[in-house]
Amino acid sequence: MRIALVHDYFTQLGGAERVVGELATLLDPAVIAASVVDRRLLPPSIAGREIAHSPLQALLRAGAPLASLAPLLPWAFAHLDLGMVDMVVSSSSAFAHHVRAPKGAVHLAYVHTPARFIWQSDEYFRASRGQQRLLGPALDWFRRADRRAYRRIDRVVANSAHTASRLAAIHGSAPTVVHPPIRLDAFHPSGERSGRFLVVTRLRPYKQLDLAIGAAARTNLPLDVIGSGPDLGRLRRLAGPTVRFLGRRSDTEVAAAMAACDALIVPGVEDFGLTMAEVQAAGRPPIAPAAGGALEIIDDGVTGFLAARPTIDGFAEAMQRAHEGGLDVDRLRASAERFGPAPFGAAIRRIVAEMTGA
Questions:
Q1: Which of 225, 215, 211, 216 is nearest to 254 (CA)?
Q2: Domain range for residue 66?
Q3: What DSSP designation does 243 have?
Q4: Which tens digits make up the pLDDT trace of 198-243?
């Protein structure tokens, strides 16, 4: 059976791209495709593979920012030529699920989140309301196109119950839930302690890092921020003397920082939240709002800490709880093992077999 694996774009190496790497290992696709590709940012399991791309690749090479290509992405995926394949598996947090399966092929969509800028516009544009108003008619068009594309999919899988509920509210049908995998072998508990709290994320307004930075100032507790992004300047201006911005770090450095931190803070509402499970695998607790994917990962006070209120005070209280009392490392690790490659692989193989009879 020939499978095509289609991802939104390879212009960053985040959680969704790591899931694509796992899907490629699992499914051995004949074709891997995306709208645009930066080969420096491919998951290791596909770094040596040929990656098909759309005509938008020429615009990216010419220096066009990815955000400027957004209006063209539905068109790019609808016209992506995958050749003769029996099955299409799309990995989508934007428009990859708009891809059209060849005649006779079936389409399985793994959805990380409904596209944020069209379905969570208030949150996505909270730092630029003028831009949101200006784009209003375009956002309406995107929503209509997204609903049409969704109806063409044969089977939808969501990365969490939270994502599934949002997809059901938008499209009227509840998808299957298969949690994404983490690399358990990359994280190991350690006796070393940095005495610092940690954030690992892209620095964008919707990640709400101002809550973690404000809570660090409120409690006078030290905080390290690993990551880069367009919100860096604003966050630096908000930060007090206990906060350090460390920029990008290698996977090995991130794993070591997780194993040594007091706790990992995830201040925004995540669709799933891979880093929460990863820090558990490293034997340390996550702190997150009592909403979204965190409710599927954290048992409050046992495998992490939930901020009862999504405010600076709410996170300050959770930080104090984490600072004052340790959690059982074995329970943290056992929680993370629910999200290892084995259960993910078994679930995806079962769904593929149900769809193809293979």
A1: 225
A2: 3-181+340-356
A3: E
A4: 999 999 888 999 999 999 999 999 999 999 999 999 999 999 999 9
Answer yes or no: do 218 and 268 share one domain. yes
Cβ contact 19:103 at 8 Å: no
Query: 3-state SS string over 140-192?
Result: HHHHHHHHHHHHCCCEEEECCHHHHHHHHHHHCCCCEECCCCCCHHHCCCCCC
Specify the DSSP class assigned to residue 304: B
Phi, psi for residue 51 in degrees, rounded to 5: -115, 115
- Tell me whether strands 286-289 and 264-265 are parallel, antiparallel or unpaired: parallel
Domain CATH for 317: 3.40.50.2000
Same domain, 330 and 346: no
According to DSSP, residue 78 is labeled H
State the DSSP H helix or E strand holding residue 351, giving kind and residue range, or none if neither: helix 341-356
Same domain, 215 and 136: no
Segment 271-294 shows an average pLDDT of: 97
- Give the whole-angstrom CA distance, residue 78 versus residue 33: 13
234 plus 325 within the same structural domain: yes
Amino acid at 230: P
